[in-house]
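FIELD: query
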Amino acid sequence: MKPPSAVPSPSFVLSRTRSGDRITKVMGIVNGTTNYVLDQMDTTGAAFGDALAEAQKLGYAEADPTADVEGHDAAAKAAILATLAFHAPSPSTTSTARASAMSRPMTSKRRRCPAT
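FIELD: result
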C-alpha cells in the first residue's frame, strides 16, 4: 500500500507497522526545498544559487535554508521514518549528501538513479 502522496508521513508508516504489515523500504521526497532546487538544476540548467534564490522567492525555502540544502532536515526525517518503520533505534549519526555541493551533471545522474 502506498501513502497518498510522495511524502512518507510518520502517521502512515506507523499505521502500517501497527496493522502488522512488514515494511521493507521507505522512499519518498522528504525535503521540498532540496527537491525543487535539484529539479530546477536538472530541468532548466539553473545554477545552484539561482535555483535556491528562486525557491526562496516562491516561498519554498526558508530565509536561512542551511538545514535543507546541507541535508540535515532530510537526515532527521529519514531517521524518524526508519525508527518507525523498522523498530530500530535512531542512529546517532546519519550520512548526508549536500544539495549545495551538487552540480548539473550530478543532478542528471541523480535522475537516472532508481533510488531517488
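FIELD: remark
Helices lie at 10-18, 32-44, 48-57, 66-69, 72-86, 104-112.
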